[in-house]
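sry for the spam today, last one i promise. struct tokens for design, 376 residues
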């Protein structure tokens, strides 16, 4: 994997680039739809490719390891083969999911012991194990095994947690360097910056991660309940330290406004369950603001989902129809709403990239931020 920085906006820290992987090239800034269990819920891989125009999707080590299990994925020849997705995949290492999902978990220097939320069985993830599991899943970009520091937390807790993540990172790098890809294409390891919302810890963590000279770097421990201002200030500080010639991935972010503001701070990659999760609850992101399609006001509104929408669902289906489907709890409702929201996120970052390249990003971003926050 290698990153080509094509252009940096003169009026902000926004960048446009290309990430070259063995499964194809990704244009940055990019949004990565989340396919936790090997599927972006409710959407076919072909729709992801052709209608959403997704360039890379996320899988999840913690979930895939528990179900369907590594034997099933390895037997298929890796996750790309198993799910029929030929473009790039990134897997998160499980650090965040163990912390947010496992029934019980015990963290020691060695790793994390946890109980499956499916059947109560006990499991153990060490940094080495997390790398081996991601080798078996076969994603193009894999994440270091870290502790996502909870928010809020005391300074000393954040410091101890960050230093353990740094020790775990060294173990991940050693394990990565002493193992090979299993399916014949290369895999890249991204380290993850921690340090909670403490500037001195964030600086120390960003400097430590930068010293590892990885092919890409992630910013973790954010979008965990902290105020947006803290997310932006920590992101700005970390991006000012991370190398400019490597992609920066801000994990778990976020709303359309969070994404545009973070692009302006120098972030290149994003993932968030929000567009797909909101879709399942009837919350649509549109060019004029957010819509709750369950609201009675849409019952006889025969206008398209989004007149400026980029995919066929935006033109073919009306607000009234989707209102009916979601009220009737029809499966098609989730499919239409999810394709719409994901296409909205991909179109947003695609337009941001175009604006960065033609030098109009800053004013466009400020206009968008005003519109996107509106509820209609
Ligand atoms: N709807 C919805 C919705 C649900 C959850 C979220 C928060 C996602 N935030 C988030 N994901 C993360 C993953 C992460 N993975 C790892 N390995 N490490 C992190 O520090 C980390 C931090 C994260 N922060 C945001 C929106």
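last one done:
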């Amino acid at each position: 994997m290698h990153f080509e920085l094509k252009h940096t906006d003169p009026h902000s820290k926004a960048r446009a680039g290309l990430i070259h992987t063995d499964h194809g090239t990704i244009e940055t800034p990019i949004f990565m739809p989340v396919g936790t269990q090997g599927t972006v819920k409710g959407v076919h891989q072909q729709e992801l490719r052709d209608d959403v125009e997704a360039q890379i999707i996320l899988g999840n080590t913690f979930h895939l390891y528990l179900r369907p299990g590594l034997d099933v994925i390895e037997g298929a020849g890796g996750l790309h083969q198993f799910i029929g997705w030929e473009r790039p995949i990134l897997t998160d290492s499980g650090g965040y999911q163990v912390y947010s999902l496992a029934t019980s978990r015990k963290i020691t220097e060695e790793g994390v012991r946890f109980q499956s939320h499916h059947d109560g069985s006990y499991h153990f993830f060490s940094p080495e194990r997390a790398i081996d599991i991601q080798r078996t899943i076969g994603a193009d970009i894999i994440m270091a095994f870290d502790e996502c520091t909870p928010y809020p937390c005391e300074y000393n807790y954040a410091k101890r947690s960050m230093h353990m993540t740094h020790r775990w990172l060294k173990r991940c790098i050693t394990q990565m360097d002493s193992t090979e890809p299993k399916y014949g294409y290369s895999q890249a390891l991204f380290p993850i910056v921690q340090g909670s919302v403490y500037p001195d810890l964030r600086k120390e963590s960003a400097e430590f991660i930068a010293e590892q000279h990885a092919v890409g770097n992630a910013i973790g421990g954010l979008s965990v309940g902290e105020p947006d201002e803290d997310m932006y200030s920590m992101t700005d500080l970390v991006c000012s330290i991370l190398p400019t010639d490597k992609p920066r991935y801000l994990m778990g972010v976020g709303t359309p406004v969070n994404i545009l503001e973070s692009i302006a701070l120098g972030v290149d990659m994003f993932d968030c369950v929000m567009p797909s999760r909101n879709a399942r609850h009837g919350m649509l992101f549109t060019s004029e603001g957010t819509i709750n399609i369950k609201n009675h006001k849409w019952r006889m509104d025969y206008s398209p989902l989004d007149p400026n929408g980029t995919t066929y669902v935006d033109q073919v289906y009306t607000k009234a129809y989707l209102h009916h489907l979601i009220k009737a709890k029809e499966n098609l409702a989730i499919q239409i709403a999810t394709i719409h929201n994901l296409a909205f996120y991909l179109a947003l970052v695609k337009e941001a990239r175009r604006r960065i390249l033609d030098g109009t990003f800053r004013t466009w971003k400020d206009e968008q931020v005003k519109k996107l926050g509106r509820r209609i």
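The chain has 15 helices and 17 strands. ok im logging off now
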